[in-house]
Amino acid sequence: MYHLTYLSDGLRVKGYLCLPYGWRLPISAVQEWLQAHYRIKDLEVTELACPIHVTCTDVPEGKWPVLIYCRGGIGRVGQVKTTWLEDFSVHGHIIFAPSYRGTEGGEGRDQFGGSDIEDVCSAYQFLARLPFVDERRISVMGFSRGSINATAAAVRMKQMYKLVLWGGVSDLTQTYEERIDLRRMLKRVIGGSTGKVPEAYDMRSPVTYVHDIHCPVLIMHGTEDMQVDYSHGAGMFRRLQEAEKDVTFHTFQGYGHHLPPAVHALAIQNMFAWLQKPVP
């Protein structure tokens, strides 16, 4: 697992690159690919963890699928869960997780689904050029607020393979009404209330882009979610069905925003089983 600096809108932002379990690459190789793509020599790379049993230290042969994991929260709240990266890495995918601008020493300011969407798109473009990545099978998953970034990236990156919305916000106006504790932050970051700048909330709501989503979608949501109400997932599912999109809904009956370990592991297993199904 590597913590690295890459470019987005000319800003130096942070992210995590996690290889499939058992594979390892020298930092110099990662640095060379960053330099070749962004044409800058001083982008930092730090190795955070390596597998106990290393299968290969050379560039992996063949072409690997990728999952871009868009974290929830903002700033230090809801930062990238490196344990999730480790859990994901055993399912035969390369994992990349943008930290979003302004976080972990990155430049710029997180706009909660504004210009920070480019952090996901830039990562997609970098990953698509890696010699061991199957650019036809790059998917994106958004957890909680990350669903805003994931959906927008899937709409912008026309070749995105699949989209996963896990406990995801689908209507930010609804979130503003439901989460009184988030209103001050939302007004500060977005520039006002839903009454003052309704268009800013609409543009950050995945449900707005239902007709623009071109790839299969998996929605995962707990029925007792107190942070992002279950109606967000159910509503997005209904709207996608009405638009005749390819959509699947995994409901976690009786569970909330964060799942207990055994259920969480099963959710991950089912998510990757869905990701690995060929697209008709």
TrEMBL record:
<feature type="domain" description="Peptidase S9 prolyl oligopeptidase catalytic">
    <location>
        <begin position="91"/>
        <end position="277"/>
    </location>
</feature>
<dbReference type="InterPro" id="IPR001375">
    <property type="entry name" value="Peptidase_S9_cat"/>
</dbReference>
<dbReference type="InterPro" id="IPR050261">
    <property type="entry name" value="FrsA_esterase"/>
</dbReference>
<dbReference type="InterPro" id="IPR029058">
    <property type="entry name" value="AB_hydrolase_fold"/>
</dbReference>
<dbReference type="GO" id="GO:0016787">
    <property type="term" value="F:hydrolase activity"/>
</dbReference>
<keyword id="KW-0378">Hydrolase</keyword>
<protein>
    <submittedName>
        <fullName>Alpha/beta hydrolase family protein</fullName>
        <ecNumber>3.4.-.-</ecNumber>
    </submittedName>
</protein>
<dbReference type="Pfam" id="PF00326">
    <property type="entry name" value="Peptidase_S9"/>
</dbReference>
